Amino acid sequence: MRDKSVSAAVGEKICRCVLEHKMLDGASGVLVGFSGGADSTALLHWLSGFCAGRPIRLVAMHINHGIRGEEAERDERFCRSFCESRGIEFVSKKADVPALAARSGKSLEEEARNVRYGLFSEALRELGLDRIATAHNADDNLETVIFNLVRGTGAAGMAGIPPVRGNIIRPLLYCEKEELVAYCRENGLDFVTDSTNSDTSYTRNFIRHEILPRLRQINPAAAQNALRMCRAVRMDDGTLCGLAAEYSLSCGRKRLSELPSSLLSRVLAREFEEFSGGLTLEAAHIEPAEELIRSQRAYFALSLPGKIRLVGDRDALYFEPDPRAAIKREHFSVILSPGINILPRGALLLLPNCAAEPAEYIKEYKNIYKFFKKAFLHSDKINGVLFAEPPRGSARMRVRGMSRTIKNLLGERKLTMAEREKLIMVCDGGGPVWIPGIATRDGCEAQPGEAENLLTLYYFYS
User: Fold this and answer.
1) Domain enclosing residue 394, as ranges
2) Which of 36, 56, 159, 354 is the most exposed place for a label (fewest CB within 10 A)?
């Protein structure tokens, strides 16, 4: 019996990955991260064949990270030419990753990754597509597992690279690097090589060139075995997270202290991420938190990342901003003008004499931000110009017949620190006029049906 061609074997693995994880079900457009390397070249070639004859728009996107000078320019020219010769839609973006990394203090690897996914998401919105396909393969997954293991991780880190994360898909995850190189050669596909991939001063490159070959000496199926382990860990982690979702800090210390560590640790991690607005807890934080929750101490306060602390007060358990560490909040003051006003915490739309919803703004900005609040104000009750700034606790606003401090108004809502960080305060010469979702100054609120002196405000935020 004749052996299967490399193309057929790789194609079967990609199809299995795509079908098992429903990667392209209902897709209308796919943005492919195209570096010009063997992996992304194989991915783009396969997807171009898959999308042909299907109502799926395919766009290749190349990102020049500004790291390798002329070599990076060469790669961009190659990618553009590759797509033009095959009739594949192509876009490119440039970023100065070294300068961004210097400002952020992050490594080049981490900054490049953040830039990449940020630009992918931006292009997805601009082009009206609904999937981002990246060329991560089985070797990349094994590298990630080893990297996480050495750095210190739990189940999430040992689960490796997820086949699907939101609108990001990884169709090559079942394929190994050497298979993808062979696929390109068999199909006559040229590709480029990034010279920095051989620099073992980068952690991932060291794992790739020094560790993986030794693992394959022990077992040539190391990458495939890692995939099986990652799948099992993801399944177990999903089950445990589902069980942990039935509990929260409001259940109280006594009830939570009776939970096994596998559930309590997930409750703490999930609740902290929600309270902090996206920060994560590591084992070094979770273990002492569990120990204190199970202890006999009537009161404790444990400092955590993000200037947050976990407080246990008898049976009560909650997160709060750490009062021992002053939280430096960003200050801004933006004078508002008709139309869209971009703010550090979102965007504010100001429309004089308009009661109807401005469909063009609503549609565009609802795609960018998750939420919006609106207010109708009497423009003749406004004292001078309107401006937006962060809420100041000492400022006062007359609400329901009483002069209230902003601190008290927010305190009544029992907002988390993350929720407070999203708030803005719209003011005029007389002080606060509107805090979205919280309060409007007495006498300023109008009805949408009023035809005269109507001022409509929309605040978009995530």
Assistant:
1) 334-461
2) 354
